Amino acid sequence: MSDPTSAAVRPKSRTAKTKLEAVVVVCAKCAKRQSLGSRAVRALLKRGLKRGHPKRKVRVVETGCLGPYPKRALAVATGASLARGRVVLLDPAATPEEAVAALLPEFGPKAGLAPAAETGEEPNPLS
Fold first, then answer.
1. Closest by Cα among 59, 72, 69, 48 to 24
2. Burial, 25: exposed, middle or buried (Cβ in 10 Å; 0-12, 13-18, 19+)?
3. From CA 11, how far away is CA 18, in angstroms rounded?
4. 25: left (phi over 0), alpha (psi -120 to 50) or beta
5. Handedness of CA 28, 31, 32, 38 (dihedral sign)
6. Most buried among 13, 21, 73, 82, by the most CB within 10 A?
7. Contact 60, 97 (CB under 8 A)
8. Measured between alpha carbons, how far is 32 from 90 in angstroms, rounded to an integer?
9. Element holding 59 (H helix, E strand)
10. What is the rounded distance in angstroms from the CA atom of residue 86 to the CA atom of residue 66?
11. Per-residue pLDDT at 12
């Protein structure tokens, strides 16, 4: 028979490695409202990534409503934006580079710091 203490030690879920850097969730209702095809946002992001960041792998998933209902924009979210409690409102006429910059900001040693006006934070009086 099984020991009840051994069941508590064993994890019920496991994780696996992936080559994906991010998952981008696109509101299908917004895309339809902007007369974009089902793959238009995916193609826009993939073009921008191929030009600027060919090694980054991103999965684009269409979903239901994300909450905001913008008149002339797409509601899009990433794991990082959802962790901050934000949904990105993307201009459907944006260039591929602008779309990638809005959704997947640069992190790393070569990335520049965002100005305080863009981040919405108060400037640090000590610096």
1. 59
2. buried
3. 20
4. beta
5. negative
6. 73
7. no
8. 14
9. strand 58-63
10. 10
11. 83
Residues 1-41 pLDDT 10s: 555 555 556 668 888 998 888 899 999 998 888 888 778 88
CA–centroid distance for 111 within its chain: 18
pTM of the model: 0.69
Packing angle of the helix pair 96-103, 40-52 (nearest 10 deg): 90
Cα–Cα distance list, 17 to 20, 21, 26, 59, 82 (Å): 9, 11, 24, 15, 22
Q: How far apart are CA 88 and CA 123, in angstroms?
A: 23
Closest CA to 105 of 74, 69, 81, 70: 81
- Could you read off the pLDDT of 100-114 as tens digits, one per residue? 888 887 655 555 555
Question: Taking 50 as the threshold, does the pLDDT of residue 94 lie above it?
Answer: yes
